Amino acid sequence: MEAILAAGIGLMLGSFLSVLIGRWPHWRGAAAGRSHCPNCMHVLAWYDLVPLASWVWLRGKCRYCGGPISTLYPVLELTTAAVLATAVIVSGVATMWSLLGLVVLFGLVGLFFFDLVHHMLPDAIVYPLALLVVARIAYYRPDQLVNALATGVLLSSLLALLFFYSRGRWLGFGDVKLAFVIGALFGYPMAVGVTLAAIWGGALAGVGLMVFRRATMQTALPFGSFWTAAAIATLLAPSWIAYLSGLLTPAF
């Protein structure tokens, strides 16, 4: 029942997140007007906005003009629901530590899709997520705080050097800020394993895209998406990354 409830909440949170991503960069906050069809601009009724169900019922088309509805909405809703439900199955929600972990996962999902769609990592998510990660570790795992902060600062500093050396050609400054989140969340040495997994994942994706002629050597890939995907996978199934970092379980 807890997993089903988490999935339902995930669908609603994913629907909210899809609105923010869909309206970026023109939105002025979550309540920037009522939802409407981007094709005919018709204001949508409540029954047009039921997470996942409305998209399936309408077969991915606007009720009023028949225009296509982006698959971003159901994909994001299903992803958020699946991530939160899996986290509850793996860790439960018996403690505040686990509840805060769900918030961290939701933030990572948001960053994954923002970078995937817009190639940017908004400060409105990165900064609160960094504060939450540090506060969570400071309160529940104070013995790991020095390791978390040091790893976050060192990893972020390394990426900052790469950013300034390449003048922003190799990575964006959002990746520099995300590096602190990843480093603080996992600490050393697991943050190294997560980063290596993201690099390898990005490299394989790039090769695959070039093989199918969907990209070239100059095509920019959203590294933040690969990094957050690796982080989410590690939080949900830590054993797969253990051999990369030498740490058996993350602080989740």
The largest sheet, given as strand count, sense and whether it forms a barrel, is: none
Number of E-type strands: 0
**Cα Rg:** 19 Å
Shape: globular
Order of helices and strands: HHHHHHHHHH
- How would you name the oligomeric state of the polypeptide chains in this document? single chain
Mean pLDDT: 83
- Helical residue percent band: 55-70%
Strand content: under 5%
**Backbone structural class:** mainly alpha
Ends apart, CA distance between termini: 22 Å
- List segments where confidence is low: pLDDT < 50 over at least 5 consecutive residues: 247-252
Domain unit count: 2
Number of helices: 10
Structural features, described:
The structure is a single chain. By secondary structure, this protein is an all-alpha fold. The chain has helices spanning 2-23, 53-57, 72-91, 96-118, 123-140, 145-166, 173-186, 190-211, 223-236, 239-245. It has 2 domains: 1-94, no CATH class; 121-252, no CATH class. The chain is globular, with a radius of gyration of 19 Å.
